[in-house]
Amino acid sequence: MTMLFALIAQTLHRVRKFLLAAGVLLAGFQVVLILQANSIQTSNTFAQMGDMVPAFARDVLGPSFVAFLTFKGIVCLGYFHPVVMGALVSVSLTLATIPVMEIETGFIDLVLARPVARHWIVTRSILVALISTAYLLAMMAIGTWIGLHYFAAKDAAWPSAGLIGSLAINLGFLMLCWAAIAMAIGCACRRRGSAGAIAGLLALTAYLTDYVGRAWKPAESVAWLSPFRYYTPFELVMGSALSAKSLCILGGIAAAAFALAYLLYSRRDISH
Amino acid sequence: MLSGSAAISIRGLTKRYGKLVAVDRLDLEVRRGEVFGFLGLNGAGKTTTIRILLDLLRPTSGNAAVFGHDCQSDSLKARSAVGYLPGEMGIYSDLTGHEMLKFLERIGGGSVSREHRHNLTERFELSDRDLSRKLREYSTGMKRKLGLIQAFQADPLLLILDEPTEGLDPLMQESFYELLADARNRGRTVFMSSHVLPEVERVCDRIAVLRKGEVVLLSSVEDARKLASKNVRVVFQQNVAVPVSLPQGYEMIDAKPRTWILRVTGQLGSLPSFLAALPVADLAVEEARLEDVLVKYYRDGAE
Predict the structure, then answer these.
(1) Which of A46, A239, A259, B29 has the smallest number of CB atoms closer than 10 Å to its CB?
(2) Fold of B229-287
(3) Closest residue of B to A117, CA-based?
(4) d(CA A147, CA A41)
């Protein structure tokens, strides 16, 4: 176990500045959104905003449109804004491709020349992905808490802690799902650049598939293939409970991809 | 059955990359306590063999063992006895030298004697101040020294060193040779690849020459040197005619009336009788160099 702790500590030490910056930025983004929501709330312009939204956008959002254009909805937007999701998925891909980067740089030669089993390298990366995901979501929740406590108007209807928690958990599962997919891809690649590009393109395709599936009925038949389909922030904002089925699907994809990563890494040649 | 008495035992080892055969049915045994030189040109298969020993690469067929432990099926035990210096050290430049050594110690499983590490850093002239610097500030030579320290720091039973003196200045090379001698005196086994033939001649007990993935020469350094032709310079008291024929194994390189330079392949036992009837004033035999033999094997894999 000392060896596993050493591997985890070394990896976290390496990415600490990156994670710190990402955490601060994401927390800051939550505060900025709350400031915006507060501004709209105090000027009482949510209704005017609703009138400005084109009809097709209302169709895409459906009944959640009403819930979205509230103080609570804008605050929750911090958990499904495309920029936030893009940043979180990028962080997941970056961390998940560390094993292939270590092969590319030759660093892993020094590690695996010692009595370190290959599966510990994948286990280390999974634990680092888990820790980083939890940390980033915690930073976002802290940003939300700071924003609400220090900048929200007193009459504003805050989102409940349960809602924020549900959004964070669902988002966390989505991040782990992409981390697992990227790790499996990385374990089959020789270059981190290739692994990152393939995983990034796959994530973008999946995001667009889900997006188009929500807006265009015929595309719904393939939208179920996208992991983003199982992140349901609008439903949560509308008051639905966190879907166990969605979590199971995201968790299942993550587990399968992590298992594939173990298999690929244990069988591959370590050559750079 | 793999031999447990040998430090390294390789049987029929083959590694193919598609149509390219990197290592071809390699058989090799490295005895405990010897310094073994693994030689060959670039692409001969040296690094591939080393990487298979460390289970970084998986062989297409055949097997390799370290102290009787199969390098694939029992690789953790095999690697627990090994200290490794890669040909190209992959390091994280944002770590300090201390952090790097400490990290590698922690994942190594065993404990590292502070005194032993201190001796190593002193030997290679890496001060505490140097070790506190980020690796991005290290020169090529300093990185190589750090690589040697990490390989030796756990005092492993087997040292696998890929081009160990590449990038070291002559003084540090001397320190390395002394360290190698100490390791041998303490019964450690060293398996090293090198391009520097005088270095191999100086430090190795036995050598294997690899060419296109196959061993073309396996012998002690002493025996390999005997395979080399020796140049014999003979000075006469008076002018001497060049003979029409020479004994077998003799070749005239340069013939002047009072000086001959002969190349003699094999033993020099027949030289006195050959020169007995001639007015020899002086005789000089150039010591055979391992390099002369090995270059021939590198080129054409001569028998």
Answers:
(1) A239
(2) Alpha-Beta Plaits (3.30.70)
(3) B76
(4) 14
